[in-house]
Amino acid sequence: MISKRDLLLASAAGLAAAGLRAAPAAEVAPDMPAGHDMSQMPANWMGKEQIAFLIYPEFTALDMVGAHAMLTGLLGATTHIVGKTRDIVKSDSGLQFQPSATFDECPRELDIICVPGGAAGTLAAMQDDGTLRFLKDRGSRAKFVTSVCTGSLLLGAAGLLTGYKATSHWATIPLLPLFGANATAARIVHDRNRITAGGVTAGIDFGLSLVGQLRDRQYAECVQLMAQYAPEPPYDAGTPERAPREVTKIMSDMFVDFNKQAERIGRDVYPRYRDG
Amino acid sequence: MISKRDLLLASAAGLAAAGLRAAPAAEVAPDMPAGHDMSQMPANWMGKEQIAFLIYPEFTALDMVGAHAMLTGLLGATTHIVGKTRDIVKSDSGLQFQPSATFDECPRELDIICVPGGAAGTLAAMQDDGTLRFLKDRGSRAKFVTSVCTGSLLLGAAGLLTGYKATSHWATIPLLPLFGANATAARIVHDRNRITAGGVTAGIDFGLSLVGQLRDRQYAECVQLMAQYAPEPPYDAGTPERAPREVTKIMSDMFVDFNKQAERIGRDVYPRYRDG
Protein backbone atom coordinates (compact mmCIF):
# COMPACT_ATOMS: atom_id res chain seq x y z
CA MET A 1 0.00 0.00 0.00
CA ILE A 2 2.98 2.30 0.35
CA SER A 3 4.98 4.21 -2.18
CA LYS A 4 8.38 4.47 -0.65
CA ARG A 5 9.06 7.70 -2.46
CA ASP A 6 5.83 9.32 -1.28
CA LEU A 7 6.39 8.04 2.20
CA LEU A 8 9.87 9.43 2.31
CA LEU A 9 8.81 12.79 0.96
CA ALA A 10 5.92 12.97 3.36
CA SER A 11 8.13 11.81 6.18
CA ALA A 12 10.62 14.53 5.43
CA ALA A 13 7.93 17.06 6.27
CA GLY A 14 6.29 15.37 9.15
CA LEU A 15 8.21 12.58 10.75
CA ALA A 16 10.87 14.96 11.96
CA ALA A 17 9.48 14.27 15.40
CA ALA A 18 10.74 10.75 15.17
CA GLY A 19 14.15 12.15 14.67
CA LEU A 20 15.30 11.82 11.11
CA ARG A 21 14.98 13.53 7.78
CA ALA A 22 13.93 11.32 4.95
CA ALA A 23 16.43 10.28 2.34
CA PRO A 24 15.71 11.46 -1.20
CA ALA A 25 14.34 8.46 -3.04
CA ALA A 26 17.26 8.48 -5.46
CA GLU A 27 19.65 7.84 -2.60
CA VAL A 28 18.05 4.69 -1.24
CA ALA A 29 20.84 2.21 -0.75
CA PRO A 30 21.06 -0.24 -3.63
CA ASP A 31 21.38 -3.20 -1.30
CA MET A 32 17.96 -2.57 0.26
CA PRO A 33 15.25 -4.98 -0.89
CA ALA A 34 13.13 -3.52 -3.65
CA GLY A 35 10.39 -1.17 -2.45
CA HIS A 36 6.72 -1.17 -3.25
CA ASP A 37 5.74 0.27 -6.60
CA MET A 38 2.40 1.65 -5.47
CA SER A 39 2.19 5.29 -6.39
CA GLN A 40 0.19 6.44 -3.40
CA MET A 41 0.79 6.46 0.31
CA PRO A 42 -2.32 5.18 2.12
CA ALA A 43 -4.66 8.14 2.29
CA ASN A 44 -5.09 7.75 6.03
CA TRP A 45 -1.36 8.22 6.66
CA MET A 46 -1.62 11.97 6.10
CA GLY A 47 -3.71 13.85 8.64
CA LYS A 48 -4.35 17.41 9.66
CA GLU A 49 -4.88 17.14 13.37
CA GLN A 50 -4.66 20.14 15.66
CA ILE A 51 -3.01 18.95 18.87
CA ALA A 52 -2.51 21.02 22.02
CA PHE A 53 -0.45 20.18 25.09
CA LEU A 54 -1.12 22.28 28.17
CA ILE A 55 1.95 23.24 30.18
CA TYR A 56 1.96 25.03 33.52
CA PRO A 57 4.53 25.80 36.25
CA GLU A 58 5.95 22.65 37.88
CA PHE A 59 4.38 20.20 35.46
CA THR A 60 6.25 16.94 34.94
CA ALA A 61 8.16 17.27 31.68
CA LEU A 62 8.31 13.59 30.76
CA ASP A 63 4.50 13.33 31.05
CA MET A 64 4.25 15.74 28.17
CA VAL A 65 7.38 14.96 26.17
CA GLY A 66 6.76 11.21 26.01
CA ALA A 67 3.30 11.64 24.51
CA HIS A 68 4.50 14.56 22.38
CA ALA A 69 7.32 12.49 20.86
CA MET A 70 4.81 9.90 19.67
CA LEU A 71 2.01 12.24 18.54
CA THR A 72 4.34 14.52 16.60
CA GLY A 73 5.04 11.46 14.48
CA LEU A 74 1.59 12.03 12.92
CA LEU A 75 2.20 13.29 9.39
CA GLY A 76 0.34 16.53 8.77
CA ALA A 77 -0.53 17.25 12.39
CA THR A 78 0.10 20.65 13.97
CA THR A 79 1.17 20.72 17.59
CA HIS A 80 0.80 23.58 20.05
CA ILE A 81 2.51 23.92 23.43
CA VAL A 82 0.02 26.05 25.30
CA GLY A 83 0.83 28.16 28.33
CA LYS A 84 -1.28 30.70 30.19
CA THR A 85 1.08 33.33 28.77
CA ARG A 86 4.15 33.25 26.55
CA ASP A 87 6.41 33.31 29.61
CA ILE A 88 8.89 30.46 30.04
CA VAL A 89 7.34 27.58 32.01
CA LYS A 90 9.60 25.64 34.37
CA SER A 91 8.91 21.96 34.90
CA ASP A 92 9.22 20.21 38.26
CA SER A 93 12.62 18.88 37.23
CA GLY A 94 13.83 22.35 36.24
CA LEU A 95 13.44 22.15 32.46
CA GLN A 96 12.39 25.46 30.96
CA PHE A 97 9.92 25.45 28.07
CA GLN A 98 8.83 28.27 25.80
CA PRO A 99 5.09 27.97 25.01
CA SER A 100 4.18 28.28 21.34
CA ALA A 101 0.70 29.64 22.11
CA THR A 102 -1.28 31.23 24.91
CA PHE A 103 -4.76 30.13 26.00
CA ASP A 104 -6.19 32.81 23.73
CA GLU A 105 -4.00 31.85 20.78
CA CYS A 106 -4.71 28.12 20.97
CA PRO A 107 -7.05 26.99 18.18
CA ARG A 108 -10.68 26.79 19.28
CA GLU A 109 -11.28 23.43 17.64
CA LEU A 110 -8.81 20.74 18.65
CA ASP A 111 -8.47 17.13 17.66
CA ILE A 112 -6.45 16.29 20.76
CA ILE A 113 -5.93 18.16 23.99
CA CYS A 114 -3.40 16.55 26.34
CA VAL A 115 -2.77 17.55 29.95
CA PRO A 116 0.39 16.42 31.76
CA GLY A 117 0.55 15.94 35.51
CA GLY A 118 2.78 17.08 38.31
CA ALA A 119 2.50 17.62 42.06
CA ALA A 120 2.41 21.08 43.65
CA GLY A 121 2.03 22.64 40.22
CA THR A 122 -0.92 20.46 39.35
CA LEU A 123 -2.64 21.33 42.62
CA ALA A 124 -2.15 25.00 41.80
CA ALA A 125 -3.48 24.59 38.27
CA MET A 126 -6.50 22.71 39.66
CA GLN A 127 -7.42 25.92 41.49
CA ASP A 128 -6.66 28.36 38.71
CA ASP A 129 -9.80 29.71 37.10
CA GLY A 130 -8.13 30.66 33.82
CA THR A 131 -6.65 27.20 33.39
CA LEU A 132 -9.89 25.43 34.27
CA ARG A 133 -11.96 27.59 31.92
CA PHE A 134 -9.49 27.04 29.10
CA LEU A 135 -9.64 23.26 29.59
CA LYS A 136 -13.41 23.25 29.96
CA ASP A 137 -13.83 25.23 26.75
CA ARG A 138 -11.41 23.32 24.50
CA GLY A 139 -12.29 20.01 26.12
CA SER A 140 -15.99 20.50 25.42
CA ARG A 141 -15.33 20.29 21.66
CA ALA A 142 -12.03 18.42 21.28
CA LYS A 143 -12.17 15.09 19.49
CA PHE A 144 -9.96 13.50 22.19
CA VAL A 145 -9.60 14.80 25.73
CA THR A 146 -6.49 13.20 27.20
CA SER A 147 -4.11 13.25 30.14
CA VAL A 148 -0.94 11.68 31.50
CA CYS A 149 -0.28 11.04 35.20
CA THR A 150 -2.08 13.43 37.59
CA GLY A 151 -3.16 15.46 34.58
CA SER A 152 -6.40 13.49 34.90
CA LEU A 153 -7.09 15.27 38.20
CA LEU A 154 -6.74 18.56 36.38
CA LEU A 155 -9.16 17.39 33.69
CA GLY A 156 -11.40 16.24 36.52
CA ALA A 157 -11.28 19.57 38.33
CA ALA A 158 -12.41 21.22 35.11
CA GLY A 159 -15.43 18.94 35.10
CA LEU A 160 -14.26 16.95 32.07
CA LEU A 161 -14.26 13.45 33.58
CA THR A 162 -17.68 13.43 35.21
CA GLY A 163 -19.26 10.08 34.41
CA TYR A 164 -16.16 8.74 32.63
CA LYS A 165 -13.86 5.87 33.52
CA ALA A 166 -10.37 7.27 34.08
CA THR A 167 -6.95 6.53 35.52
CA SER A 168 -4.10 8.59 36.98
CA HIS A 169 -0.70 8.15 38.61
CA TRP A 170 -1.07 4.93 40.65
CA ALA A 171 -0.88 6.77 43.99
CA THR A 172 -3.72 9.12 43.09
CA ILE A 173 -6.25 6.79 41.44
CA PRO A 174 -8.46 6.74 44.57
CA LEU A 175 -8.92 10.50 44.21
CA LEU A 176 -10.70 10.28 40.86
CA PRO A 177 -14.23 9.78 42.27
CA LEU A 178 -13.87 13.13 44.02
CA PHE A 179 -13.94 14.57 40.51
CA GLY A 180 -16.85 12.52 39.31
CA ALA A 181 -14.78 9.89 37.51
CA ASN A 182 -15.00 6.13 37.71
CA ALA A 183 -11.52 5.24 38.99
CA THR A 184 -9.91 2.50 36.91
CA ALA A 185 -6.49 0.97 37.58
CA ALA A 186 -4.91 0.49 34.17
CA ARG A 187 -2.01 1.99 32.24
CA ILE A 188 -4.34 3.52 29.66
CA VAL A 189 -8.09 4.00 30.10
CA HIS A 190 -10.20 4.84 27.06
CA ASP A 191 -13.85 5.76 27.64
CA ARG A 192 -15.63 7.31 24.65
CA ASN A 193 -13.37 10.25 23.72
CA ARG A 194 -11.54 10.46 27.02
CA ILE A 195 -8.13 8.80 27.22
CA THR A 196 -6.26 8.95 30.51
CA ALA A 197 -2.84 7.40 31.10
CA GLY A 198 -1.03 6.36 34.27
CA GLY A 199 2.08 7.91 35.76
CA VAL A 200 4.78 9.72 33.76
CA THR A 201 6.15 7.06 31.38
CA ALA A 202 2.64 5.87 30.51
CA GLY A 203 2.47 8.88 28.22
CA ILE A 204 4.65 7.05 25.69
CA ASP A 205 2.31 4.05 25.59
CA PHE A 206 -0.71 6.35 25.37
CA GLY A 207 0.78 8.43 22.56
CA LEU A 208 1.84 5.43 20.52
CA SER A 209 -1.53 3.72 20.88
CA LEU A 210 -3.31 6.89 19.77
CA VAL A 211 -1.03 7.09 16.72
CA GLY A 212 -2.15 3.57 15.85
CA GLN A 213 -5.78 4.54 16.30
CA LEU A 214 -5.50 7.69 14.16
CA ARG A 215 -3.44 6.03 11.39
CA ASP A 216 -2.96 2.27 11.40
CA ARG A 217 -0.85 -0.46 12.92
CA GLN A 218 2.00 -0.29 10.41
CA TYR A 219 2.26 3.45 10.81
CA ALA A 220 2.49 3.14 14.60
CA GLU A 221 5.08 0.40 14.23
CA CYS A 222 7.21 2.79 12.16
CA VAL A 223 7.00 5.41 14.91
CA GLN A 224 7.83 2.78 17.54
CA LEU A 225 10.87 1.54 15.62
CA MET A 226 12.13 5.07 15.03
CA ALA A 227 11.97 5.68 18.79
CA GLN A 228 13.55 2.26 19.40
CA TYR A 229 10.78 1.66 21.90
CA ALA A 230 11.73 -1.79 23.11
CA PRO A 231 12.06 -0.94 26.78
CA GLU A 232 14.42 -2.85 29.05
CA PRO A 233 13.80 -1.47 32.55
CA PRO A 234 16.82 -2.38 34.66
CA TYR A 235 14.59 -3.02 37.70
CA ASP A 236 11.07 -4.38 38.08
CA ALA A 237 9.47 -1.82 40.38
CA GLY A 238 7.24 0.15 38.03
CA THR A 239 3.92 -0.58 39.76
CA PRO A 240 3.00 -0.69 43.45
CA GLU A 241 2.28 -4.40 43.08
CA ARG A 242 5.63 -5.26 41.49
CA ALA A 243 7.84 -2.98 43.59
CA PRO A 244 9.23 -4.28 46.88
CA ARG A 245 6.81 -3.51 49.72
CA GLU A 246 9.17 -1.03 51.35
CA VAL A 247 9.61 0.89 48.09
CA THR A 248 5.85 1.14 47.62
CA LYS A 249 5.49 2.37 51.18
CA ILE A 250 8.16 5.06 50.84
CA MET A 251 6.58 6.37 47.65
CA SER A 252 3.00 6.13 48.94
CA ASP A 253 3.98 8.18 51.96
CA MET A 254 5.18 10.95 49.67
CA PHE A 255 1.66 11.40 48.32
CA VAL A 256 -0.12 11.93 51.61
CA ASP A 257 0.00 15.70 51.51
CA PHE A 258 -0.75 15.85 47.79
CA ASN A 259 -3.78 13.64 48.23
CA LYS A 260 -5.13 15.68 51.15
CA GLN A 261 -4.90 18.85 49.13
CA ALA A 262 -6.47 17.21 46.09
CA GLU A 263 -9.35 16.00 48.24
CA ARG A 264 -10.00 19.53 49.39
CA ILE A 265 -10.00 20.74 45.80
CA GLY A 266 -12.43 17.97 44.91
CA ARG A 267 -14.79 19.25 47.58
CA ASP A 268 -14.35 22.98 47.06
CA VAL A 269 -13.46 23.57 43.40
CA TYR A 270 -14.77 20.71 41.31
CA PRO A 271 -18.51 21.31 41.94
CA ARG A 272 -18.25 24.80 40.47
CA TYR A 273 -16.80 23.53 37.16
CA ARG A 274 -18.87 20.35 37.00
CA ASP A 275 -22.05 22.32 36.66
CA GLY A 276 -20.76 25.58 35.22
CA MET B 1 18.36 1.59 56.74
CA ILE B 2 16.01 4.46 56.09
CA SER B 3 14.49 7.07 58.32
CA LYS B 4 11.21 7.87 56.67
CA ARG B 5 11.29 11.39 58.03
CA ASP B 6 14.76 12.07 56.72
CA LEU B 7 13.88 10.50 53.45
CA LEU B 8 10.80 12.63 53.10
CA LEU B 9 12.61 15.81 54.02
CA ALA B 10 15.42 15.01 51.66
CA SER B 11 12.95 14.04 49.02
CA ALA B 12 11.12 17.31 49.35
CA ALA B 13 14.28 19.05 48.23
CA GLY B 14 15.53 16.66 45.67
CA LEU B 15 13.01 14.17 44.39
CA ALA B 16 10.93 16.92 42.86
CA ALA B 17 12.11 15.56 39.55
CA ALA B 18 10.12 12.44 40.20
CA GLY B 19 7.10 14.61 40.48
CA LEU B 20 5.89 14.98 44.03
CA ARG B 21 6.60 17.00 47.10
CA ALA B 22 7.20 15.01 50.22
CA ALA B 23 4.58 14.88 52.92
CA PRO B 24 5.57 16.32 56.27
CA ALA B 25 6.31 13.34 58.52
CA ALA B 26 3.47 14.30 60.84
CA GLU B 27 0.98 13.83 58.05
CA VAL B 28 1.84 10.25 57.14
CA ALA B 29 -1.43 8.40 56.87
CA PRO B 30 -2.19 6.43 60.05
CA ASP B 31 -3.19 3.36 58.07
CA MET B 32 0.25 3.04 56.52
CA PRO B 33 2.39 0.25 57.99
CA ALA B 34 4.85 1.53 60.58
CA GLY B 35 8.00 3.06 59.13
CA HIS B 36 11.60 2.33 59.94
CA ASP B 37 12.95 3.82 63.13
CA MET B 38 16.47 4.31 61.85
CA SER B 39 17.49 7.90 62.31
CA GLN B 40 19.65 8.19 59.24
CA MET B 41 19.02 7.88 55.55
CA PRO B 42 21.74 5.75 53.97
CA ALA B 43 24.69 8.07 53.48
CA ASN B 44 24.97 7.15 49.84
CA TRP B 45 21.44 8.35 49.08
CA MET B 46 22.54 11.99 49.18
CA GLY B 47 24.94 13.03 46.45
CA LYS B 48 26.33 16.22 45.02
CA GLU B 49 26.72 15.37 41.36
CA GLN B 50 27.14 18.04 38.72
CA ILE B 51 25.23 16.86 35.66
CA ALA B 52 25.16 18.57 32.27
CA PHE B 53 22.91 17.84 29.31
CA LEU B 54 23.98 19.33 26.00
CA ILE B 55 21.19 20.70 23.84
CA TYR B 56 21.52 22.01 20.29
CA PRO B 57 19.15 22.99 17.46
CA GLU B 58 17.05 20.06 16.21
CA PHE B 59 18.07 17.64 18.94
CA THR B 60 15.52 14.95 19.84
CA ALA B 61 13.78 16.10 23.00
CA LEU B 62 12.86 12.68 24.38
CA ASP B 63 16.50 11.54 24.17
CA MET B 64 17.32 14.20 26.73
CA VAL B 65 14.12 14.38 28.77
CA GLY B 66 13.90 10.62 29.41
CA ALA B 67 17.39 10.46 30.89
CA HIS B 68 16.90 13.82 32.62
CA ALA B 69 13.71 12.62 34.34
CA MET B 70 15.61 9.72 35.89
CA LEU B 71 18.86 11.50 36.76
CA THR B 72 17.12 14.46 38.37
CA GLY B 73 15.79 11.91 40.83
CA LEU B 74 19.30 11.90 42.35
CA LEU B 75 19.04 13.69 45.69
CA GLY B 76 21.56 16.51 45.93
CA ALA B 77 22.51 16.55 42.26
CA THR B 78 22.64 19.79 40.27
CA THR B 79 21.56 19.64 36.64
CA HIS B 80 22.52 22.03 33.85
CA ILE B 81 20.89 22.32 30.44
CA VAL B 82 23.75 23.60 28.37
CA GLY B 83 23.40 25.44 25.08
CA LYS B 84 25.97 27.21 22.97
CA THR B 85 24.28 30.45 24.00
CA ARG B 86 21.29 31.32 26.17
CA ASP B 87 19.05 31.49 23.10
CA ILE B 88 16.00 29.22 22.98
CA VAL B 89 16.85 25.85 21.41
CA LYS B 90 14.19 24.18 19.29
CA SER B 91 14.05 20.40 19.21
CA ASP B 92 13.32 18.37 16.08
CA SER B 93 9.72 17.95 17.23
CA GLY B 94 9.32 21.69 17.78
CA LEU B 95 9.70 21.87 21.56
CA GLN B 96 11.47 25.05 22.65
CA PHE B 97 13.91 24.83 25.55
CA GLN B 98 15.63 27.62 27.46
CA PRO B 99 19.23 26.60 28.33
CA SER B 100 20.24 27.14 31.94
CA ALA B 101 23.92 27.61 31.07
CA THR B 102 26.16 28.36 28.10
CA PHE B 103 29.29 26.41 27.23
CA ASP B 104 31.31 28.97 29.17
CA GLU B 105 29.01 28.90 32.19
CA CYS B 106 28.87 25.11 32.46
CA PRO B 107 30.94 23.85 35.41
CA ARG B 108 34.43 22.74 34.41
CA GLU B 109 34.29 19.53 36.45
CA LEU B 110 31.28 17.35 35.73
CA ASP B 111 30.17 14.05 37.16
CA ILE B 112 27.97 13.30 34.16
CA ILE B 113 27.84 14.81 30.72
CA CYS B 114 24.99 13.52 28.56
CA VAL B 115 24.54 14.18 24.84
CA PRO B 116 21.18 13.56 23.14
CA GLY B 117 20.86 12.66 19.48
CA GLY B 118 18.90 13.90 16.53
CA ALA B 119 19.24 13.90 12.76
CA ALA B 120 20.07 17.03 10.73
CA GLY B 121 20.83 18.88 13.96
CA THR B 122 23.24 16.23 15.13
CA LEU B 123 25.07 16.28 11.80
CA ALA B 124 25.40 20.06 12.15
CA ALA B 125 26.66 19.79 15.73
CA MET B 126 29.17 17.14 14.61
CA GLN B 127 30.75 19.82 12.42
CA ASP B 128 30.60 22.71 14.87
CA ASP B 129 33.98 23.52 16.34
CA GLY B 130 32.58 25.21 19.46
CA THR B 131 30.39 22.24 20.29
CA LEU B 132 33.14 19.70 19.68
CA ARG B 133 35.68 21.64 21.76
CA PHE B 134 33.19 21.97 24.60
CA LEU B 135 32.50 18.24 24.57
CA LYS B 136 36.18 17.35 24.28
CA ASP B 137 37.07 19.59 27.22
CA ARG B 138 34.32 18.55 29.64
CA GLY B 139 34.42 14.96 28.47
CA SER B 140 38.14 14.70 29.16
CA ARG B 141 37.49 15.11 32.89
CA ALA B 142 33.87 14.06 33.46
CA LYS B 143 33.31 11.02 35.65
CA PHE B 144 30.77 9.65 33.15
CA VAL B 145 30.65 10.55 29.46
CA THR B 146 27.25 9.49 28.16
CA SER B 147 24.89 9.70 25.21
CA VAL B 148 21.44 8.70 24.00
CA CYS B 149 20.61 7.77 20.40
CA THR B 150 22.84 9.40 17.75
CA GLY B 151 24.38 11.49 20.54
CA SER B 152 27.11 8.83 20.49
CA LEU B 153 28.13 9.99 17.00
CA LEU B 154 28.55 13.48 18.39
CA LEU B 155 30.68 12.16 21.24
CA GLY B 156 32.57 10.21 18.60
CA ALA B 157 33.16 13.23 16.39
CA ALA B 158 34.69 14.98 19.40
CA GLY B 159 37.13 12.10 19.75
CA LEU B 160 35.59 10.82 22.97
CA LEU B 161 34.81 7.25 21.92
CA THR B 162 38.11 6.27 20.35
CA GLY B 163 38.92 2.79 21.58
CA TYR B 164 35.64 2.38 23.46
CA LYS B 165 32.75 0.02 22.92
CA ALA B 166 29.63 2.05 22.13
CA THR B 167 26.11 1.91 20.74
CA SER B 168 23.75 4.35 18.99
CA HIS B 169 20.32 4.45 17.37
CA TRP B 170 19.95 0.99 15.76
CA ALA B 171 20.12 2.42 12.22
CA THR B 172 23.43 4.17 12.87
CA ILE B 173 25.40 1.56 14.81
CA PRO B 174 27.51 0.64 11.75
CA LEU B 175 28.80 4.23 11.65
CA LEU B 176 30.53 4.04 15.02
CA PRO B 177 33.84 2.60 13.75
CA LEU B 178 34.21 5.72 11.59
CA PHE B 179 34.63 7.53 14.89
CA GLY B 180 37.05 5.06 16.39
CA ALA B 181 34.47 3.20 18.47
CA ASN B 182 33.86 -0.52 18.73
CA ALA B 183 30.23 -0.78 17.53
CA THR B 184 28.10 -2.82 19.90
CA ALA B 185 24.42 -3.64 19.39
CA ALA B 186 22.83 -3.32 22.81
CA ARG B 187 20.34 -1.02 24.49
CA ILE B 188 22.99 0.30 26.89
CA VAL B 189 26.74 -0.12 26.45
CA HIS B 190 29.03 0.61 29.39
CA ASP B 191 32.80 0.63 28.76
CA ARG B 192 34.89 2.10 31.55
CA ASN B 193 33.36 5.57 32.08
CA ARG B 194 31.58 5.77 28.74
CA ILE B 195 27.87 4.88 28.70
CA THR B 196 26.04 5.03 25.39
CA ALA B 197 22.36 4.20 24.97
CA GLY B 198 20.32 3.19 21.93
CA GLY B 199 17.60 5.18 20.22
CA VAL B 200 15.39 7.79 21.91
CA THR B 201 13.51 5.81 24.60
CA ALA B 202 16.69 3.99 25.65
CA GLY B 203 17.54 7.16 27.57
CA ILE B 204 15.06 6.17 30.26
CA ASP B 205 16.68 2.77 30.77
CA PHE B 206 20.12 4.36 30.75
CA GLY B 207 19.17 7.05 33.25
CA LEU B 208 17.50 4.63 35.64
CA SER B 209 20.41 2.19 35.54
CA LEU B 210 22.87 5.00 36.27
CA VAL B 211 20.71 6.08 39.24
CA GLY B 212 21.05 2.54 40.55
CA GLN B 213 24.80 2.61 40.04
CA LEU B 214 25.25 5.99 41.76
CA ARG B 215 22.92 5.18 44.70
CA ASP B 216 21.63 1.66 45.13
CA ARG B 217 18.95 -0.72 43.94
CA GLN B 218 16.23 0.39 46.38
CA TYR B 219 16.79 4.01 45.49
CA ALA B 220 16.45 3.30 41.78
CA GLU B 221 13.32 1.26 42.45
CA CYS B 222 11.80 4.30 44.19
CA VAL B 223 12.55 6.45 41.13
CA GLN B 224 11.12 3.77 38.85
CA LEU B 225 7.91 3.47 40.85
CA MET B 226 7.46 7.24 40.97
CA ALA B 227 7.70 7.31 37.18
CA GLN B 228 5.40 4.28 36.97
CA TYR B 229 7.95 2.80 34.61
CA ALA B 230 6.24 -0.49 33.82
CA PRO B 231 6.05 -0.05 30.06
CA GLU B 232 3.29 -1.67 28.03
CA PRO B 233 4.15 -0.91 24.39
CA PRO B 234 0.96 -1.38 22.36
CA TYR B 235 2.97 -2.88 19.47
CA ASP B 236 6.11 -5.01 19.31
CA ALA B 237 8.18 -3.18 16.73
CA GLY B 238 10.84 -1.48 18.85
CA THR B 239 13.90 -3.11 17.27
CA PRO B 240 14.71 -3.88 13.63
CA GLU B 241 14.61 -7.59 14.48
CA ARG B 242 11.18 -7.46 16.11
CA ALA B 243 9.49 -5.05 13.71
CA PRO B 244 7.79 -6.43 10.59
CA ARG B 245 10.28 -6.59 7.72
CA GLU B 246 8.51 -3.85 5.76
CA VAL B 247 8.55 -1.50 8.74
CA THR B 248 12.27 -2.04 9.24
CA LYS B 249 12.85 -1.36 5.55
CA ILE B 250 10.85 1.87 5.53
CA MET B 251 12.70 3.19 8.55
CA SER B 252 16.13 2.03 7.34
CA ASP B 253 15.58 3.85 4.07
CA MET B 254 15.06 7.06 5.98
CA PHE B 255 18.61 6.90 7.31
CA VAL B 256 20.42 6.63 4.00
CA ASP B 257 21.13 10.32 3.64
CA PHE B 258 21.95 10.74 7.33
CA ASN B 259 24.40 7.88 7.19
CA LYS B 260 26.13 9.21 4.06
CA GLN B 261 26.64 12.58 5.67
CA ALA B 262 27.84 11.04 8.92
CA GLU B 263 30.36 8.96 6.97
CA ARG B 264 31.77 12.09 5.41
CA ILE B 265 32.08 13.71 8.83
CA GLY B 266 33.84 10.61 10.08
CA ARG B 267 36.40 11.00 7.31
CA ASP B 268 36.80 14.76 7.37
CA VAL B 269 36.12 15.99 10.91
CA TYR B 270 36.79 13.19 13.35
CA PRO B 271 40.55 12.88 12.70
CA ARG B 272 41.09 16.50 13.74
CA TYR B 273 39.45 15.99 17.13
CA ARG B 274 40.73 12.47 17.71
CA ASP B 275 44.29 13.73 17.84
CA GLY B 276 43.77 17.36 18.87
Strand content of chain A: 5-15%
How many helices of chain A? The count is 10
**Biggest interface and which pair forms it?**
A-B, 98 and 98 residues
Mean pLDDT of chain A: 88
Q: In percent, how helical is the residue content of chain A?
A: 25-40%
Largest sheet of chain A: 7 strands, mixed
Shape of chain A: globular
Q: What is the CATH topology descriptor of chain A?
A: Rossmann fold
Q: Structurally, how many domains make up the residues of chain A?
A: 1
Which architecture of chain A per CATH?
A: 3-Layer(aba) Sandwich
Structural class of chain A: alpha/beta
In short, what is this structure?
Chain A is α/β, with parallel strands linked by helices and 276 residues long. Chain A has helices at residues 4-14, 61-71, 120-125, 129-141, 151-157, 202-214, 217-226, 245-253, 256-268, 270-275; strands at 50-54, 78-83, 89-90, 96-97, 101-102, 112-115, 144-148, 165-166, 182-183, 188-191, 194-197. A 7-stranded mixed β-sheet of chain A has the order 5-2-1-6-7-11-10, sandwiched between helices.
